[in-house]
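<context>
A single protein, sequence plus fold
<entry> Chain with its tokenised backbone below
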Amino acid sequence: MKSGLLKGMILASVLFVGLAGCGRSKDKDKQPTTKPAATTPPKTFMAPANNAIDAAHLARVRKDINEGLKFLLEQRNDDGGWGFAPGQSHPALTAMALKAILQHPEYDNESAVVSEGFKCLLKFRQSDGGFYNPREGNANYVTSVAVMAMATAKNPAHKGALADAVRFLRGEQIIPGSKTPTGRDVVEKHPYVGGVSYGSEDQNRPDLSNVGMWMEALHEAGVPADDPAMQRALAFVARLQNRTEGTEGQVFVVRGNDDGGFIYAVSQKDGEFVGESKAKEGRRGLRSYGSMTYTGFKSMLYANVARDDPRVRAAYEWIRKYWSLDSNPNMPELQSKQGLFYYYHVFAKALRAWGQDEIPNIRGVKHNWRHELIDVLAVKQNQNGSWVNSASRWMEASPTLVTCYAVLALQETLK
């Protein structure tokens, strides 16, 4: 997680194919622009077929999603988009809101709110294929969430824009022959290879948040796991795992932790490449923390790393050890609520990709991750349907951003 326009976007995330496509109203011209009453959720909502959610939680999550979407629809600007400030639409928030709306069964490409939202989003399409505001940057983050929205919509009218955006993202990856921030050539074994950065001159160092968003976008767009670009990204992700065994020195953590979790980035300090953790350094090395560990975990799964691979097993054991939905796990206490809703978002994405309904912690207590996520978000939802984080770091003081995170996370429980 870093600063910049989406400094807290870390998003991310953001994404998913799911509820869109099932049981929509046939009268598209009369689609409402606001959600149905939250107390009467549509019967067309889907849920896991294996009874992973009980009836009470199913009713709760449907209600909370409806209320969250109602809030988002009330935040729409006159141009059909969403933003961090009233009347100022932002491409990333517009894309995130569109994805959440499209994953509700009562909306599709013919719904007015969707078509108007994409008109707004497409205004941010640049000649290089990316989606971003040239004055703000963060092209990888914004383009990634735009790709996810278009991939969810599956609108033939967006086919060219989607293909161009995927091409743009491929071009954002650091490969041998790229230039470092100081203008030097990146060689084959350079620690930045496979990574993706914010892209600005002063932030050209890749990090796991950017790479996690990038891999998720390509995954959503149908890029296969064995694609060379995905495998290069996987190699970069592996360098940020607190696991030095078997890495042949290509890891940038401080020896001592080896807990299987993930840190944020590779940085250069005094001519040396070192790890960087937004959770600060612990006495035994760089501290792994929840939002980055779940990002690394899902990124490995998107790259089709086997479930019994030592890297995956090490990350899974970290998840079992630090199981928590009260905080961003293993962050220092004073920082433990920072990035909390981004954490919920990647938590849901990662565990759905893992495909296990109950996760036993290290004491053997089984946790139904869907139920627990639904419960914690129900308590945190405001009366107007929104969510917001009192710890404002990474832009989580924005109720529009945080409500997008929460709705997208809850939608994962229904897949």
